[in-house]
Design brief:
The chain is 47% helix and 0% strand. It is mainly alpha-helical. Helix 2 runs antiparallel to helix 3. The longest helix has 33 residues.
């Protein structure tokens, strides 16, 4: 009598998805350029950070995104690493007075944050589209239906 091993037991793998593959990097790069992650033609933003309801070129609905706090977080992470490295390098090399640090680094930090925030948000929306996250999955249940307690009248 033999003892079953993990190789003897049947492993059930999820069935392959019937959804078409959405390439991640092209979608993120399109989003970072402010273009629709699906087609790359239509504008992604309506204003500075407001994502359009849908793409004007291909009709892909874009309002499903849930970028939330990710774009500011990644912006602070990137800008912080760059600015702090530069501040330390300038301090060690030149030892400038404190007023010069403030006059140089505060505007540079604000400007670089504002420049990076929009492309990072676009890339996050592209990532969510490529991975069928949130409402970008046509087969998913509506999110408001998932959040209702059982037996709750609609």
């Amino acid at each position: 009598m033999t003892t079953p091993t993990s190789l003897d037991t049947a492993t059930t793998w999820p069935a392959p998805s019937s959804k078409p593959h959405r390439p991640l990097m092209p979608a993120m790069l399109r989003g970072a350029r402010g273009r629709c992650p699906a087609c790359g033609e239509g504008a992604l933003f309506d204003g500075y950070l407001t994502v359009k309801h849908s793409c004007s070129a291909c009709g892909e609905e874009l309002h499903h995104h849930r970028a939330d706090d990710a774009p500011p977080y990644f912006t602070i992470l990137i800008v912080g690493h760059i600015i702090v490295s530069l501040v330390l390098a300038v301090e060690v090399a030149f030892v400038p007075p404190m007023w010069l640090h403030v006059a140089l680094w505060v505007p540079l930090t604000i400007a670089s944050s504002l420049v990076l925030l929009r492309p990072i948000k676009g890339a996050i929306v592209g990532l969510q589209w490529a991975f069928y996250m949130h409402g970008f999955d046509p087969d998913a249940e509506p999110e408001d239906a998932v959040m209702l307690p059982a037996g709750h009248p609609r």
